[in-house]
Amino acid sequence: MNRRHLAVLAVVIAVPLFTIGLISPVPDYGPQLETSVYHQPDGNLNEETPTVAYRNLSTDAQQLFDKANNNGPNSAAVPIDDAPTSWATLVSETAETNERYVRKNGKIYGVYLTWDVPAPSFGTVMLRLGPLLGAIGLGTLAGFLILEDSS
Amino acid sequence: MSILLVAKKDFQDAIRSLTLVAVVGIFTAFLAFYTYYEFTMTPLTTTTAFDLYQSTANAVVVIGTLLGYKSIAGERESGSLKFLLGAPHTRRDVVLGKFLGRVAVVVVTVVIGFVVVSPHYVMLAASPSVTAYVGLIGRLLVPGVVFVAVALALSAASRSTTVAMWGAIVLAIVFAFAWDMVRNVIESFMLPPDAGIPNWFRLITRFNPKYFYLDAQTLELGNAAPFYLEPWFGGVIVAGWLLIPLGLAYLLFERSDLA
């Protein structure tokens, strides 16, 4: 197989790779509301600190609270558009954190709300960028091979 | 005509030495990565084609400088300059021909990079604009061409490629990176916080060929802006950046000994 054949082979592989890179989905990096729930031991809170009864939370907020509380890392994240309105409006791009206290079954829990934009995982990035960079590399290799062959 | 012959030979040399393919490949890969980064990893602001300018301009400055520094010093060091001047070319032809040949490499690199990445841009941008994209390419070519001229002047002034290379590296660092850092330090610590940015500071910013386009219109200053912030003055700055280095390159090369 001479250099010109190798160059054609590189281009033949590069074209579908480039197409795969282009049509790979672009992940949604929209902002999220990250909710962390921690049990507050008695005496840690000032008596004047306002607390909200669990039963007074909206259904969405109750579900998010339970999800975070039952999760291993004590936190759960939902897209900001799907988050309970009463909590989602407490945080923003400029005011990233807020804190609330919820009373449930006689215990007080601290609920830390964080406005966050998740960083894409390496795998997600490479799903699109990997084929593109691979295609560009193969195109460059094809150029090298053709020029070397002609000189 | 002689100028074009030298330019053509220089461009063909770049193709034969595989410099062009390597530079195009590296630039295109960088542009693909950077386009992806700008359009998907900074989701909080609406990204436009022009947001690709800052870092891409730095890359183009580096490319222009690296392509230019060896143009004359390299040929002098290898001895091929004597052969080139043995043909019926004057030294002026060599300087201008080399300049045009290297500029052609920069133009081809930038254009191929942007053409290859264009489908990627169309898929990622919320509202892709052909005009903005083409305008960005045109704007990026200016610092690239200017830094070819500056590096060529260094190349004409140096007897060895090592000296020319270090000069080019220092220049690229100063104009691509250090200028912005110094500007930010002055803006943050030396200018009064509530007084607004003075026009002289905008002029200093504009003296960097990367920012030649920053005029009263771009900065939304209205009609009260001084003449040096009007759009035509950007042309004066670019012309100065081209004519002074090329003139110096010619004068230094004309007077230098080939040995």
From TrEMBL, chain A:
Keywords, ordered alphabetically: Membrane, Transmembrane, Transmembrane helix
UniProt keyword Membrane, yes or no: yes
Domain DUF7979 per the UniProt entry, residue ranges: 43-111
Transmembrane segments: 125-147
Name of the featured protein: DUF7979 domain-containing protein
InterPro entries assigned: DUF7979 (IPR058285)
Domain of life according to the entry: Archaea
Organism this protein belongs to: Halocatena pleomorpha
Record-linked Pfam families: DUF7979
TrEMBL record, chain B:
Pfam families: ABC2_membrane_2 (PF12679)
GO molecular function: ABC-type transporter activity
Top-level taxonomic group: Archaea
Keyword Membrane assigned: yes
Membrane-crossing residue ranges in chain numbering: 18-37, 99-121, 133-156, 163-182, 232-253
PANTHER family xref list: ABC TRANSPORTER PERMEASE, ABC TRANSPORTER PERMEASE PROTEIN NOSY-RELATED
Protein name: ABC transporter permease
Record organism: Halocatena pleomorpha
